[in-house]
Design a protein that fits this description.
Helices cover 6% and strands 53% of the residues. With 139 residues, it is mainly β. The longest helix has 9 residues, at 2-10.
Amino acid sequence: MISTAIALLIGISIPLVASQPANAACGTVNSASSYWGWNGTWSTHVVGTNCSTRYGRLVWDTSDSCCNPWWVKIERQLWGSYGWLTTHTQTKRVEFGNFGTHNTGTVPSDPSQGSERFHACWGIGSTTPSSWTCGGWVS
């Protein structure tokens, strides 16, 4: 807590990873990543809409980084013979200053296809971001 306050005083942003239960099934909301720093407060989440879909959520409270759109993304990966493979992605663009809660479209969840995992990410840019900040994977 003291180190966070000190970082804020000297203008360093600190990304925080929240540890939550690792299952987003059937309506459970899992925090994937959050950010609290000198230029704003926001978080991303993986949300289970029912037992067969997931979506990404951006909760955007404030930002001093002017003018660029923000993005939220959810990715679904399946485990296969070559490792984890991204099978589905949904993104949503959020115009600057449109604070509040924003959701992507849904991606499927079907454990009968094998081991699967999901994560939510955020990025900034006028077009789809070239880099994303993502939270941990959840099942």
